[in-house]
């Protein structure tokens, strides 16, 4: 007896190579015993809407797209309180989440991974009330480029586009004064960058989290905050530390936490899973341990 599979596809993600293999993908799922319904997304939040409205009618949901598409689908899962397993076919320009979990980047290999793999429970982060993220919430330098970089540029150069735009933007880095609360600690300082993450890869670059014991199901985020440098030598010291994945406590705060609160006098632009996450003066981020069953 065939099982029902909802295939949510972002046709404009990444290098769009998934469209070239669409028939092969659907045929492989059919041969594995699934009756496939294809739902191409057309605008933001389409993924979460279809999961909320129709997800419960299926035995399996598969998402094909970049990190932003995955983020949207996972948000639907969380809002619908769905316990269905989720398959993922990476089709973005950097695919940080897939790189971290070891999910194949080649479409047909990812399909085989879904049809023969097993669900693995991973943590999901909540961002204020009704927004979620899979692997990162961040603000400051190196973040706005992930959503301001032209999509065609990202498609051509992949994660190199992020690095190129990062270097170009260093001359006009914005400083954010913020207060961070976690556990029983409170930090108030000026920052050029902050990230709360559950990932081995950010912007296509490995080992930027500066932690060697990252687990995807421990209920804990890895957090990195970088202070504002006061001169070029300090900026160079920060960059050197990042290049060798080393914490420089003079310029960085690095810690683990289940819940983090960030407040500021002025609105701060945030990024969630590589997509613009809005401007906020107050953000509460919490880890929901083992909230999503991802197939790997």
Description:
The chain has 296 residues and is of the alpha+beta class. The protein has two domains: 3-117, 3-Layer(aba) Sandwich (Rossmann fold); 133-289, Tumour Suppressor Smad4, CATH 2.60.200. Helix content is 29%, strand content 39%. It is built from ten helices and 15 strands. It has helices at residues 17-20, 22-31, 46-54, 67-80, 96-101, 107-116, 145-148, 151-157, 160-169, 232-243, and strands at residues 3-9, 34-40, 60-65, 86-90, 119-127, 131-133, 136-140, 176-182, 185-197, 201-202, 205-206, 221-227, 252-257, 259-272, 275-295. Strands 5, 6, 7, 8, 9, 12, 13, 14 and 15 form a nine-stranded antiparallel beta sheet that branches. Strand 8 (176-182) and strand 9 form a beta hairpin. Helix 3 runs parallel beside helix 4 (67-80). The longest helix is centred in the first third of the chain and has 14 residues, at 67-80. The radius of gyration is 19 Å and the shape is elongated.
Short summary:
With 296 residues, the chain is an alpha+beta fold. The protein contains ten helices and 15 strands.
Number of domains as seen in the coordinates: 2
Low-confidence stretches: 156-164
Query: Which fold does the CATH topology of the largest domain refer to?
Result: Tumour Suppressor Smad4
Integer average pLDDT: 86
Question: What does the largest sheet look like?
Answer: 9 strands, antiparallel
Q: Please state the CA-atom Rg, rounded to the nearest Å.
A: 19 Å
Classified by CATH, the class of the largest domain is Mainly Beta
Structural category: alpha+beta
The total strand number stands at: 15
Beta-strand content bin:
35-45%
What's the end-to-end separation, in Å? 24 Å
Instruction: Kindly state the percentage of residues in helix.
Output: 25-40%
Question: What general form does the structure show?
Answer: elongated
Number of helices: 10
Order of helices and strands: EHHEHEHEHHEEEHHHEEEEEHEEE
What is the CATH architecture assignment of the largest domain?
Answer: Sandwich
